[in-house]
Design goal:
Blueprint: H1 3-8, H2 10-20, H3 22-34, E1 39-43, H4 46-63, E2 67-69, H5 72-76, E3 87-93, H6 99-110, E4 115-119, H7 125-129, E5 132-135, H8 148-164, H9 168-175, H10 177-184, H11 188-196, E6 203-208, H12 213-227, E7 230-235, H13 236-239, E8 252-256, H14 263-277, E9 280-285, E10 297-299, H15 310-327
Parallel strand pairs: 1-2, 1-3, 3-4, 4-5, 6-7, 6-8, 8-9, 9-10
Helix pairs in contact: 2-8, 2-10, 3-8, 4-8, 4-12, 8-9, 8-15, 10-15, 11-15, 12-15
Bound molecules: fructose -6-phosphate (F6R).
Length: 345
């Protein structure tokens, strides 16, 4: 089983999580509700850290919970245990192995605040260090690059939010995701074609905003590790505070532009980048017939609420990076220099 198969397994993996993981997620939600939680800290690395960014927006937008990304080096390099008062601490890691992520949960556990592990690996050090374990049920992920564990991490966070709010409508929207992700896989021929036309791509910026900032970061990481593209991800807001100076005619700009609060500003910005600088724009969107986005568009299904769209919008990005890697002669199943499990301390 390789990366392409694992991309295709995502609808089934999400479906499994929604059934087999629901009780554990409900218990974690109950624990957060029972404790005097005023904010959340999330410890994670790499792709899992992008799921943490998604959690910042979901728990922020839907629960008014300030969510911080942990700084694990404070614990491991400087020997400082932050004061976690009134926090819940969540560790996200498919392998559950990285010592620095585990160290943050250990410190939180000693301070007796609720700890939650979101992991694909039962019995892993991360799982062992947490009060509550949300298993992803994604099945073994063999390709080095994470795909189905990323989307299941997002869905675990989304369902946690729905259950935390006791929000039936949100829970039904989450349950609709496997079918939507299934439909999004149909974009593959477009993704392959757009990647093939860009076989020389070796640098780009990747833009998203709000819920889709996580997608922009994850797309950029897939571009780097699979296709060896120097891909620099930005919030569309931050991008205008300096990096805009990079642009010139033909500069590749990848952007995630779904419906929702971030859409108008993004469409306007991208229209300007095309008109003023003649950038080479590739977009992922659920909008139909938005001429300012240009022709190189990977269309995802419409109708999903914006807070859940990141689960869907990453699929064309994964496929684009996969096909670009193949076109460039890279092995998408085994990127050079990296391993499936990276242990940082
Ligand atoms: C990216 C990738 C890595 C991992 C990171 C964290 O495709 O695979 O960035 O996401 O090493 O791994 P886990 O989730 O096992 O802690």
């Amino acid at each position: 089983v390789g990366l392409r198969e694992e991309i295709g397994e995502q609808p089934a993996a999400i479906r499994r999580l929604l059934v087999e993981g629901r009780e554990a997620i409900a218990r974690a939600a109950a624990a957060i509700r029972a404790a005097d939680v005023e904010s959340v800290l999330v410890a994670a690395r790499g792709t899992s850290d992008h799921a943490a960014i998604y959690a910042q927006y979901v728990l922020g937008a839907r629960h008014r919970l300030p969510v911080g990304l942990a700084t694990p080096s404070l614990v491991t390099l400087y020997g400082v245990e932050p004061a976690f008062r009134h926090m819940a601490v969540i560790g996200i890691s498919q392998s559950g192995a990285s010592p620095d992520v585990v160290a943050v949960l250990g410190a939180a556990h000693r301070q007796r605040v609720p700890t939650i592990a979101i992991t694909n690996t039962r019995g892993s050090p991360l799982a062992e260090s947490a009060d509550h374990v949300i298993e992803l049920h994604a099945g073994e992920e063999r390709a080095v690059a994470a795909t189905k564990t990323y989307t299941t991490e997002l869905v675990a966070i989304a369902l946690l939010s729905a259950l935390l709010a006791d929000d039936q409508e949100a829970a039904s929207d989450v349950e609709a995701l496997p079918a939507v992700v299934e439909a999004a896989l149909e974009v593959e021929s477009t993704a392959r074609q757009l990647a093939t036309e860009r076989a020389g791509l070796d640098r780009c910026v990747v833009l998203g905003r709000g819920f889709e900032y996580a997608t922009a970061r994850e797309w950029a990481l897939k571009m780097k590790e699979l296709a060896r593209v120097i891909a620099d991800p930005y919030s569309a807001a931050d991008f205008q505070h300096g990096p805009l100076a990079l642009l010139e005619a033909g500069f590749p700009v990848l952007a995630v532009v779904p419906s929702g609060n971030a859409q108008d500003g993004l469409v306007e910005l991208l229209g300007r980048l095309s008109a003023e600088f003649g950038v080479d724009l590739v977009t992922v969107t659920d909008r139909v017939g938005e001429s300012r986005l240009g022709a190189a568009t990977m269309q995802i299904p419409g109708g999903t609420p914006d807070w859940l769209t990141p689960v869907v919008s990453i699929v064309p990005c994964q496929l684009f990076a996969y096909h670009l890697a193949r076109r460039k002669g890279e092995d998408p199943d085994a990127p050079r220099h990296i391993r499936k499990v990276t242990l940082t301390r």
